[in-house]
Design brief:
mainly beta, SH3 type barrels, 5-stranded antiparallel beta sheet, 15% helix
Length: 88
């Protein structure tokens, strides 16, 4: 995701010494490397560049970023909502 779209980690695994994750970027799932931020967990929100998680966001920051991107037309207004953490 080159535009800094926040994503939510949905799965983490190790692969040959590499910490890998699957992240949901408003409806699009992508693989991500977590080696720069190895303490990330499932449910954390991240900003990714070139396949590497570089920044952790809280849910408020992630939501504000997605809404601003919608407002300025960077993200299609019909794209799914930001995946929010479960409340259960």
């Amino acid at each position: 995701m080159c535009l800094g779209v926040p994503g939510r980690i949905t799965k983490i695994w190790n692969e040959e010494g590499k910490i890998c994750a699957q992240a949901d970027f408003i409806g699009e799932t992508r693989p991500v490397c977590l080696n720069y931020l190895p303490d990330l967990a499932v449910g954390d929100y991240i900003i990714v560049h070139a396949g590497f998680a570089l920044t952790r966001l809280d849910v408020g920051e992630a939501s504000r970023t997605v809404e601003m991107m919608r407002e300025y037309g960077v993200i299609d207004a019909d794209a799914p909502a930001l995946p929010l953490p479960s409340t259960g």
